[in-house]
Amino acid sequence: MKIINLALFGPGKVGSKLIQQIIAAKDQFLRNSDLEIRIVLIADSSNLITDHLGFDEHWKERFGKEKRSYKFQDILKYLEKNTFTNLISIDTTASDSLPENYIDLIEHGSHIVAANKAANTLSLEFYEQLRTALKQHHKIFQYETNVGAGLPVVETIKSLYESGEQVTRIRGVFSGSLSYIFNTYSRQNVQFSEVLRKAGEFGYTEPDARVDLSGKDVARKLLILARELQLKKELEEVSIQSLLPTSLNGGTSLQHFQKQVSILDDIFQKHKDENKSGEVLRYVGELNVENGSLQTRLISANAATPLGQIDGTDNIFEIYSESYKEFPLVIKGAGAGIDVTARGVFSDILKINKQLN
Fold first, then answer.
1. Which residues in 194-215 are b (16+ Cβ under 10 Å) and which e?
2. Given this model, what pLDDT does residue 250 score?
3. Which of 141, 115, 154 is nearest to 336 (CA)?
4. 173: which strand partners?
5. Active site residues per annotation
């Protein structure tokens, strides 16, 4: 029997769903593949629990009873002591600091799966150091859910590049939350603040919706795709159109933003009024490989085009290349959601499993 050992960082919404999916599939993997997946560590930002034999469906109760505070060196000592084979560390956090520990994890025998985008959008120096460590220690880093949740976007871009296909341009709607917001707002006679409120209730936006409206999340995804094409770019080089007026930006409190959010109604009504007949609003990311420009912005799109036809939380990626000059390769589908993202992380784990002896 083959055993995969998992160290999970971030047992929040996505992390908890992932654990549920893994436990639910346990019997199937044993029966069909003679494979056991053990979750041997679960850690949030402050506390952790460990069990070298793996946790079952009662892990939440055990976390409540057994959790203990830790320093990251404690985790490395635990991994070193138990010498886990086929070890994979999973990052389902939104932490900017946890990825700085990836190299230590790699040096302690771990592969990495990350829904967290930070490692791929930190400085180019760190980005390259991480790739060097992976190569030196023969470890694998999977991060398909960084862009497009469960859609095979990163994998497709990698495959095109590695096959020698010259990608010239990538454009699309990269944010499931902004997709839902502008799909709904463009088609219904409703105030923008009301759509934003509903998006929050459905869990499509971050608790602080300014994270989505700032455009930085789309910019990070655009940067990840640019770096997959070996463009040596920094986040600061992305031209980002924020959807927030200065009075509601990150310099104010969340409480202030929520009280004053109706200010956005007039702003976006003006954008809607400027649309021509048959146009809808879309917040897009665009990478021009030939001139190296990266840009995020709000546009008016023809509702009859693929970009204009997306619905719900759909993402869409239009990939132009030598072989797809006039009619791009299009990847489209759900770009947000806890289930979809967790399933995408699970898929990345299984991709690593296939490459392990």
1. ebbeebbeeebbeeebbebbbb
2. 65
3. 115
4. 316
5. 221
